[in-house]
Amino acid sequence: xxxxxxxxxxxxxxxxxxxLLRCNYSSSYSPSLFWYVQHPNKGLQLLLKYTSAATxxxxxxxxxxxxxxxxxxxxxxxxxxxxxxAAEYFCVVSPSGSSYKLIxxxxxxxLVRP
Amino acid sequence: EAQVTQNxxxxxxxxxxxxxxxxxxNMNHEYMSWYRQDPGxxxxxxxxxxxxxxxxKGDVPEGYKVSRKEKRNFPLILESPSPNQTSLYFxxxxxxxxxxxxxxxxxxxxxxxx
Lengths: 114, 114
Fold this sequence. Notes:
Chain A has strands spanning 3-6, 10-14, 19-21, 23-26, 32-38, 44-50, 56-58, 64-68, 73-78, 87-94, 103-104, 108-113. By secondary structure, chain A is an all-beta fold. In chain A, the strands form 3 sheets. In chain A, strands 2, 5, 6, 10, 11 and 12 form a 6-stranded mixed beta sheet that branches. In chain A, strands 3-9-8-7 form a 4-stranded antiparallel beta sheet, with no helix packed on it. In chain B, the strands form 2 sheets. In chain B, strands 2, 4, 5, 6, 9, 10 and 11 form a 7-stranded mixed beta sheet that branches. The mean pLDDT of chain B is 95. Chain A binds chain B through residues 9, 32, 42-46, 49, 51, 90, 94, 99-107, and chain B through 4, 31, 33, 35, 40-45, 48, 50, 56, 58-59, 90, 92, 96-100, 102-103, 105-108.
């Protein structure tokens, strides 16, 4: 069965420093991978997605992620954190062969210190 | 304004009392889906619908029913709610599937079953 593992439940950074949120996936085939963000008391918003095109994917608000098949990873990065980045982030996989199902990781809460 | 709406936003009920959470989208989307969010578990897919009269189970369908009689609406029905269905529920929609089209999420419904 396909799954994603988010390696950190909480990450704390200072404003202006880099952000790294880690995600590993398990899949027999090349999956489609996504990062979603959930701000407090809000619904989810798509940050970026990988669907077998370029391995470095750029998303909104300066975030990007790199698909590394050899490491089965899809880590989310941002060069410089902003206070408004404080939120919960979900790594998500769509199982191969399905255009309709999503499997979410357990989430990483990003705290940004002033 | 393009949006996904859910009603009610908050609901407290008792075990066994049937309830319906409504979801409506005004974007003429074919695909709609329900998720539940629990602490430490991320979001889990309950049911999804590819189009009118076409629905399928997600990962946690037990205790839930859905229907898709018209394109804009996708209600979630709990025929006999139990305390383990206390959760935060999200409805989402996209033009078609989850791979190539952005999913738009509703604001969430917080359900408490006593």
